[in-house]
Amino acid sequence: MQNQPLKTESEQQDGVAAEPKKIILQVSRVQTSMRIDQYLTQQVENATRNKVQEAIEDGRVLVNAKTVKSNYRIKSCDLIQITLLRPPAPELAAEDIPIAIMYEDEDLMVINKKPGMVVHPAFGNWTGTLANAILHHIGKDAEELDKSELRPGIVHRLDKNTSGLIIIAKNSVALHRLARQFAERKVIKIYKAIVWGVPVPSSGTITTNIGRSKKDRKVMANFPFEGKDGKTAITDFRVTENLHWFSVLSLTLHTGRTHQIRAHMQHLGHQILGDETYGGAAVRTLPFSKSESFVKNLLELLPRQALHAETLSFHQPVSHEPLSFTAPMPEDMQSALLKIRSAVNQASL
């Protein structure tokens, strides 16, 4: 049988879950009648029959604008639309990728993730992720972890270009107990960031709701706290170093919304240095000679958001022993700070 080319609609942004993916195709000519679940499994790359049947049962498969059952047999010129909640993914494979393990026991690992590493496979990044590295490191013991969602042992996440500490569960008991600690806000998460300007006052709490922007679904936006849009988001901030045109902040998360710190810093008017999505990567003019060249060089030195997950404190999920870990600021952020401090000293501020 021949079909017209597939049309797809999907989007993926660093740290933002992909929008549902719509696939539309038209059956040109049917030589042998076939069930629609079989047909779609063949036509949609990496789709499984279970996922297709689930979509049919949920009413996310339309044939000529009407819902059908899995045993429906396709006909010539049928116009089929299937909406997948996630892009179909290839099977997760173990990959020998170096990872910096700060702590490990029989139940969990604490990893210092380098900037630029994607945490788990997603549309456009099926390989080379932390999840692939985890499977290789854990080996046969990873069989107990659910790989169906491509997130084996991953309790929480960090954006691709955010560095720092992340907890990985090595078995299902640890996974569920650690997830409960996060849900109950018992995990202490402290980040370090280099931001534009110096907040006044030098410490405080940011409270908004965070949800997808109504203007651009690829980014997150702030909405009135406890309003009808978005979900509540709470971040404490404290200036730890005043660098006149920039500052270093310590940020404590009380909730775990997508892009929470990055969106909250934009809301505060002190965007994270290098954060292209939230306004921190534009070249700004500073009050000293050749400042434009200085800022361009600074952004080249740090071509990502200057955000680092510095501290994680939680309880071991089986023994309940309190655990706390701190990861030093990565080299790119330290180099940027040295450059900024030098400029401040030269300006005699």
Reading the helices and strands in chain order gives: EEEHHEEEEEHEHEEEEEHHEEH
Structural class: alpha+beta
Q: Cα-atom Rg, whole angstroms?
A: 24 Å
Report the mean per-residue pLDDT as an integer. 87
What spatial form do the alpha-carbon principal axes imply? globular
Q: What is the count of DSSP helices, taking H or I runs of 4+ residues?
A: 7
**Highest CATH level, the class of the largest domain:** Alpha Beta
| Uncertain spans | 1-13
Report the sheet with the most strands, covering strand number, pairing sense and barrel closure. Answer: 10 strands, mixed
How many individual β-strands? 16
Under CATH, the topology of the largest domain can be stated as: Pseudouridine synthase
In CATH, the architecture of the largest domain is 2-Layer Sandwich
Question: What's the arrangement of secondary structure elements?
Answer:
Elements: E1 2-3, E2 7-9, E3 21-29, H1 36-43, H2 49-57, E4 61-63, E5 66-67, E6 79-84, E7 100-104, E8 108-113, H3 130-138, E9 163-169, H4 172-183, E10 188-196, E11 203-212, E12 220-223, E13 231-243, E14 246-253, H5 260-268, H6 291-301, E15 307-315, E16 322-326, H7 331-346
Parallel strand pairs: 9-15
Antiparallel strand pairs: 1-3, 2-3, 3-6, 4-5, 4-6, 7-8, 8-9, 10-14, 10-15, 11-12, 11-13, 13-14, 15-16
Helix pairs in contact: 1-2
